[in-house]
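Usage

Read records sequentially. Each one opens with the input sequence:
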Amino acid sequence: MPYKKINSDEMILRDHLAYDRTILAIERTLLAYLRTAVAFLAAGATLIAVFLANKLFLILGSFIVLIGVVVGIVGCQRFLELNKRIKMLHERVEDES
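and closes with the structure output:
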C-alpha cells in the first residue's frame, strides 16, 4: 500500500483540498459516462423509431441501445469502486490521528 506512510498529523489544508478535488473528479467522470450512455440510448432509440420497417436499422439501433446500457453500468461500477477506495483511504488516515 503506497499510502501507509501518510501521517494524518502532517496533512495540511492542501492535502484535504486534494481529497475534495479527487471526489469531485470521480463524480465528473461518472457524469461523463452517464452523458455518453444517454446519448447512445437516444441515438439507438431514434434509429429504432424512425426506421422501424428496416431490419438493418432495427438491429443497429438495438445494438447501440445495448452499448448505452453497458456504458452506463460500467460508469456506475467504476464510480462505486473508486468512491469506496478513496473513502476507505480517507477514513484510515483520519483514524490514525
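Summary fields computed downstream for this record:
- The chain has a mean pLDDT of 86.
- The first helix runs from residue 13 to 50.
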